[in-house]
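FIELD: query
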Amino acid sequence: MISGTLHEMLDDCAVGLLERHLAHAKEWFPHELVPWELGRRFVPGAVFEVEGAPLPTGTASALFLNLLTEDNLPNYLHAIAMVFGSGSALAEWSRRWAAEEQRHAIVMRDWLCVTRKLDPAALERARLRHVSAGFRAGARDLTLTDGVVYLTLQELATRISHWNTGRLLDEIGCNLLKRVAADENLHFLFYRDLATAALQAEPSRAVEAIDRQVTGFQMPGADIDGFAAHAAAIAAAGIYDFRVHYEQVLVPVVLNHWRLESVEGLDDAAERARDHLLTWMDRLRRVAERMAAQSVGAAAPGAGGGG
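FIELD: result
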């Protein structure tokens, strides 16, 4: 278990990080980003038909997974509250985070309904199944350090997935997902810097947590029905694959920012964890390079967004 002293230290750090976040967060309104003029009534019981040209399979899969994972916010907030506790700056942050994340599901669903790019009835059935199932993939049974490491990786992966999906949409859809991705970037920075503080305070335990979370990483939507097929389509579309995961998430965060290779003062267990992680990452790099050379996307653990 994480010591009370570390929790207190990270809570003190969270005070400044929350102030920084609030200073940089941009106020925006979902209803202003949706082209309502395109909308019309859905006739109850009518067979759904896609409006205009259907979305490419990978783009449709990315929107489907990203929206369903944003929908599962109640379960994520519960999991985070179990790790962060209550009556603290960390708890205050988690509530602010949840309020901002809820906008993402609102704006994405409204846009999909007025543009008729995905079947809203199919989305609603999937939402009910996914939220009712709870939260089992990714961050679970965590220490505080595990939690902030996982959330760092997850928020960055989500930002990238939304951004790359937006590039494949029309101008309105692109701008909408860029706005969502900008939120996710601020969330990523909060968690990244909180994890950095944990690494400085307890380097051995933090390195072990980084090893666990990187090598066992799954996005929170990994238990959605049909996830593997959706993830494969997302990878084939170039939205998120092993190469993206390695080059845009692991290298900039684990190697460049946390400087895993140069962390000092590790005990024997942490040294073994670092060696294990570096070997694992080198193997992932080779897989990514081979896939890129073959021009074949392979689904990465971060395929799909959420949170």
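FIELD: remark
The chain has a mean pLDDT of 91.
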